[in-house]
Specification:
With about 260 residues, the chain is an alpha/beta fold. It has one domain: Alpha-Beta Barrel (TIM Barrel), CATH 3.20.20. The protein is about 40% helix and about 15% strand. The chain has a 7-stranded parallel sheet. Strands 5-6 form a two-stranded antiparallel ribbon. Helix 5 runs parallel beside helix 6 (about 180-200). The protein starts with 8 loop residues before the first strand and ends with a helix. The relative contact order is 0.17.
Length: about 260
């Protein structure tokens, strides 16, 4: 039986360029080498039509990202394979702009996420730990926000040419007692069907271990992916160099237990 996941590949790494991570691209690469990775994929944040301050994605920096990424690919050739990808934040109200931005570069990997919820003429960050933000989302209604988030991903999997769905259940990760109701669970089944139909992968995102003690997404979602034959890809979601490949050594046994 083939391994459930390849832990020598970290498919989700950020850099200081997104405005909310720290460290140069080369520092992430060096950490990847120390961890014994064979491959590391930068997956920087791309958004379109989002009204949110301070900006937490790349705007003009992708030219530098590719230039520096290609330099690093040369420099570390034979030691670690460096890939240059993008974490596409889906915005149902800016699909053509998003597609236009994606078409500007040739990405090694396209990840799909949804980080924002529109509220009036502004967006709220669904992954923020800020109290004010959580209070606003609570006032809108947490269940409805989660429904909209999952609907966005279901639409996105049909619209965006992506390789992997990132941190599927990280929505409102800082909201105390956050959980899915029966309708949300049905939406997630639909989303998994969409991922399967697309031939995309599901990310096992080990940042969840720091946030809640277990990776994103929850075991029942991983199980649903395995039942559909959806491949699992490991991602650390590193926002600091030392987070590259975090907890990957735990994944084989963890996934084995889920699949048994
Ligand atoms: Zn980020
Ligand atoms: Zn993300």
């Amino acid at each position: 039986m083939p391994a459930l996941i390849d832990i020598t590949i970290d498919g989700h790494v950020h850099t200081r360029l997104c405005n909310h991570a720290s460290g140069e691209m080369e520092e992430y690469v060096q950490q990847g080498i120390q961890r014994g990775l064979t491959t590391m994929c930068f997956l920087e944040h791309l958004e379109a039509g989002i009204h949110y301050q301070p900006r937490s994605w790349l705007e003009g920096e992708f030219a530098y990202y590719f230039e520096e990424g290609r330099r690093l690919q040369q420099r570390y050739r034979g030691i670690i394979d460096i890939r240059l990808g993008v974490e596409t934040g889906y915005n149902p109200e800016a699909v053509s702009l998003l597609q236009e931005k994606l078409a500007r570069y040739s990405w090694d990997r396209i990840g799909l996420s949804c980080h924002f919820h529109r509220h009036g003429d502004r967006h709220l960050n669904l992954l923020s730990r800020r109290r004010e933000s959580l209070e606003q989302l609570a006032a809108i209604g947490v269940d409805g926000v989660v429904t909209a988030y999952l609907d966005a991903l279901i639409a996105a999997i049909g619209m965006i040419d992506c390789d992997v769905v990132c941190h599927l259940d990280a929505v409102l990760r800082h909201y105390p007692g956050i959980g899915f109701n029966e309708d949300h669970r049905r939406q997630i089944e639909t989303l998994l069907d969409g991922i399967q139909a697309k031939g995309a992968a599901l990310e096992i995102n080990t940042s969840g271990i720091d946030y809640r003690g277990s990776p994103f997404p929850a075991p029942w979602i991983i199980k649903g992916a395995l039942q559909r034959g959806i491949p699992l890809h490991a991602g650390s979601d590193a926002h600091k160099p030392e987070e590259v490949g975090r907890y990957f050594d735990r994944l084989p046994q963890y996934l084995q237990e889920i699949s048994d």
